[in-house]
Amino acid sequence: MRKFIPDPDSSKKLKEIPPNLLPGEMEVIANFQDESLAHAFDTVSHAWLGPSQQILMKKSHGQLIHDSDFINKIDGCLVVWNPDETVKAEAWEIIYPGSNGDKWWNHKQLLKQVDKAIKVFKEAHSGCQALFVFDQSSAHAALGPDALHAFDMNKTNGGAQCKQKDMIIPDSNSDPQFHSKVQKMTTESGEAKRLKQVLEEREFDVKNMCAKCKPVCPFKNDKCCMA
């Protein structure tokens, strides 16, 4: 990934060195998710008073305000600008959570914001590839309902497992003949595929292998279970 991102010049001129791209390759722009919380009265720390005046401080800190945005080195905040330098589109989301306010920020809202951010990025930087970077918040680790997740799959077809979206077999697959090919994650009857069938279709040897390790897989072991 690093080779697709511009590097800073090592000299004191601080000029950016563009990446050396091959035909068909795109420059990558990193977008960092930035999230913060504040209260409506957080900034009220000083007041002008007369000699006999006394300010009546509010017991509450005020309405909670949560905002989430994506930041990159080109735009600052990820936006699309109009010719008159007004904002045409932006990825920024702001909510007012609390007992009488909006729902607390969760992975569903984050995924919705990411979809919005992708559209904004495509318009702002056509011809470039976006890289979205998140911290280790539990909401950021959440997956969509049809996300590819081996530990949510059964050893047999069907059952209570969710139907996952079709996948493109990565180039890290052991058999190169399957690289970049689409693999269906449901059977012809519409059932969710089992772990064993998915792996066998890609020429993995899963003989005598359990479906999942319990409670977790051994450290640095990539052949302990199907998942």
Describe the structure.
The structure is a single chain. The protein is extended and about 85 Å long. The model has no long low-confidence stretch (mean pLDDT 83). The longest helix has 18 residues, at 107-124. It folds into two domains: 1-40 and 62-142, no CATH class; 143-227, no CATH class. The chain is 11% helix and 21% strand. The chain has two helices and eleven strands; from the N terminus they run ββββββββαβββα. With 227 residues, the protein is α+β, with helices and mostly antiparallel strands.
- Tell me the structural class: alpha+beta
* Cα separation of the termini: 26 Å
**Helix amount:** 10-25%
Proportion of residues in β-strands: 15-25%
What is the domain tally? 2
Q: Count of DSSP helices? A: 2
The overall strand count is 11
Q: What is the residue-mean pLDDT, rounded to a whole number? A: 83
Q: What is the gyration radius calculated from CA atoms?
A: 25 Å
What does the main sheet amount to?
Answer: 5 strands, mixed
> Stretches where pLDDT falls below 50 for ≥5 residues?
none
SSE series: EEEEEEEEHEEEH
The dominant shape is: extended
Assembly classification: single chain
